Structures are given as C-alpha cells and as structure tokens.
Amino acid sequence: MRQKNLLEKFQSRTLVIATKHKKEDVIDPIFSLNLGVKCITLANFDSDILGTFTGEIERTQDAFETVRKKCKLAMQLANCDMGIANEGSFGPHPTLGFVNCDDELLLFLDAKNNLEIWVREISLQTNFNGKQIKTVSDLEEFANNAKFPSHALILRAHKDDHKNITKGITDPNVLVSTFLKLLSEFQSAYVETDMRAMHNPTRMQVIADGTQKLVKKILSQCPSCNTPGFGITNAIPGLPCEGCGFPTRSTLFYEYKCDSCAYVENKKFPHGKTKEEQTYCDMCNP
Length: 286
What we know:
Order of helices and strands: HEHEHEEEEHEEHEHEEE
Helix content: 25-40%
Strand order of the largest sheet: 2-1-3-4-5
Mean pLDDT: 93
CATH topology of the largest domain: Maf protein
Shape: flat
Structural class: alpha+beta
Number of domains: 3
Largest sheet: 5 strands, mixed
Low-confidence stretches: none
Number of helices: 6
Number of strands: 12
Strand content: 25-35%
C-alpha cells in the first residue's frame, strides 16, 4: 500500500530530461517503466553553456551545482515541475587513484512535492584517455584501445587547443585524414576519447546504471516520515581484516539519512561479509 501511494505522486505526470546528448535513450525507459511518468526532452536545450568536456566553455561550478542548474533550466524552459539531469566527470578514481573512472552525478527534482534526490555512480568501466601523438601507428593503437569506431574520438593540435578541434569522429578515413592535416600543420596532434554520451556507449551504460540507482532511491521511503529518497548518504570504512583484525578501508556500514526529517539509520556489513581479505589490509599488505 505504501508503494502504491508513493507511485501516485509521480504517475501520469511529465518529467523533462535535461540533455542534448541523447541521454533520454537510457533514462526515459527506466523512469517511464518504474514511475509511470511521461518523459520529454527539449530540442533546443544547450547544456554546453554550463561547460564542455573539451574545455571551450569552462565549468565554473562543481558538478552538483552544475547538475542542479542544468535541471532547473530545463524545467523552466519546458514549464515542467519535474526533471532529471546528469553531469559526468572523468579522471583518477577518488580512492584507487591510479586508474581512471567515470563519475556520474544524477539529480531528480520534483517541485510539486518539494523533492531533491540525487545519486552518484562511480565506475571503472570507461575508455577515458588522451595522448599527444606523431604517427599513424600511434593513432591506430590509441583508437583500438578506445573502442573506436563504436566510441567516437576527438582530434586537435594539442590538449589545450580549442580552435583546431574535430569532435565526434567515427569514420576511420576521417580520423586518419584529420590527423594527417594536423600533423602537417603542427607536427603532432592530440587524440582523445569523446565523452559525450551519444558518442560513448560505455558511458551511456554507466548512466543507465545510475538511473536505476536513482529510481530505487526515489521509491525508497524514510521509515520515520515516509518521504521518498531515503538512501545511502555515507559509506563508513573500518571492516576488520580477517588476519590481524585491523580496520581496513573497506566499508563497515552504510549510513542512510532522510533529508526531510534527518532520521538516520546505519546498516552494517552491506556487502554481506564481516571480515576483509588480507590483500586489502594496509597492515598485512602495506
């Protein structure tokens, strides 16, 4: 009964997806099926005004403020009281450090019910990379590792060049000819992965995973006040090592907190294990 009453808050309402990069391809089916909403997009919506991956327009605010602004802008333009937006960041993993990751932030706003619900999806599944190159063989090696041509590439003179830039390359002939042109003019070229969602199926899957997580959180109600959006707000490390008993950096418990009434609930051993392997212990395996 609680779930039915919760769904009635959203069913048959219109939700705008704030995107210009085809993210509706994965977001729309998930929201439509699970919340019963009608999803729309705006043909003229330009999220690039808030920043681009390639740096022509700098993102002046952090990811959360950017995604909130993006969502509110789309809701205003669509005259819609419910929206979803996403912002991705790419670079070293926040804890592993030495490997690149895809860090996706997804935000759901419902002005009618005064809800702001967000999730973060961090994945090691990414082809994010860039390299200054001087030969066709270097270009071909990079392209193969980047899953080209199913994943698009970008070429420019150097990493910080915003004038001589070609995006969305998926044709091998165009890739080589563009590179050779840059090579003749600048003696080298910078090749990088195109991280825009419609040109990067791997990223699109991470966004889909994040959307599933967001819907699950929306449909999770606070045990105290029944407000939607009761979910994980913090992961507390300290799972003891099976060898020495020393607290490791692995998660001991998840903290759940309600943004409405501030009710807090801790769920210990979220991954179903009470001890961590010695491999992941800083004392046993420094």
